[in-house]
Amino acid sequence: MGNKKGAWSKIGPPAVLLTVLLAGWQTAAWLELFDQWLIPSPVSIVDEAIRIWPRLMEHTEATVQLTLIGFVGGSAVGFVLAALLHLIPGVRTAVYPLLVLSQNIPVIAIAPILTMLLGYGLLPKALLVTMVCFFPITVAMLDGLMNTDAQLRNYLQMIGIRRLKLFWKLELPHAVVHLFSGLKIAASYSVLSAVVAEWLGTNKGLGAFMLISSKGFMPDRVFAAVFIIVALSLTQFGLVTLAERLIIRWRPKKEVR
C-alpha cells in the first residue's frame, strides 16, 4: 500500500496537470479561441495520427534506430574518454578545457559540416547524436572517479594495489552512480539530437516528417510527431532509470531518482 502511495505521489501531480492542460486546450478549440489550421485540437491530432499510423510508425522506427546508435556510441565514447582523462592527468589538463569549449558550438552549426564531409547517409547523423551524448556522460563519470574516498584510495595504494586495479575495484564502482546521472541526461538529449540530425536532409525519421508536414501546412501531423518525440524521450529516460535501479542495488531507493 505504501509503495502505491509513493508511486502516485510521483506520477499523480504531473498526470493531473497534463490532463488539465489538455482539457483546457480542447475546450479552447471547441470555443474557437484560436484558428485550428494553426493550432489543432488534441482530438484532431489524435484522429490524424490514427489515420496515418503506419507511415508515422515508419518514421518513428527510423528515429529510434538513429537514437539508439548515437546513444550507444556516445555512451562508449564518454566512458572511455572519462577513464583516460582520469588515469592520465596530463591528457586531462590538455583535453578537458577543449571539451568544455566544444560544447559552446551549436549542434545546428556542426551538422552541415558533417554532411559536407560524410554525405547524407546514416553516418553523419549518428555521429552528430554521438557528439551530443558523450559530453554529459564524460563529465558525470569523471566527477565520480575524482571524488572517490581519498582515505580509502590512499590506503589501497599504500598496501601496493596497482593503478589499474584500483580503478576497476574502487574508483569505477564509486563512479557508476555518477555515470547513470550522465546517461539519463544523454538519454533525453539523444532523441532531440536525432530529430535535429534528420533535418539535415533525409526522407525518413520524425524530423523529416515534421519538415514535410510543416511545409504542407499540416500542423496536426507536426504536433503528432512532437508528441511521439516526447514519448520517446520519456521512454529512453525511463529505461536508463530502470537499468540504474537494477544495477546499483547497494544504493538506497530514495537516492535513485
Automatic annotation (TrEMBL):
Swiss-Prot/TrEMBL GO biological process terms: transmembrane transport
Annotated membrane topology: Multi-pass membrane protein
Keywords: Cell membrane, Membrane, Transmembrane, Transmembrane helix, Transport
Highest taxon in the source lineage: Bacteria
Transmembrane segments annotated in the record for this chain: 66-88, 95-120, 126-145, 222-243
InterPro entries: MetI-like, MetI-like_sf
Residue ranges annotated for the ABC transmembrane type-1 domain, each copy included: 60-240
Compartments reported by the entry: Cell membrane
GO cellular component: plasma membrane
Pfam families to which the protein is assigned, alphabetical: BPD_transp_1 (PF00528)
Membrane recorded as keyword: yes
CDD domains to which the protein is assigned, alphabetical: TM_PBP2
Assigned protein family: Belongs to the binding-protein-dependent transport system permease family.
Protein's UniProt name: ABC-type nitrate/sulfonate/bicarbonate transport system permease component
Source organism: Paenibacillus endophyticus
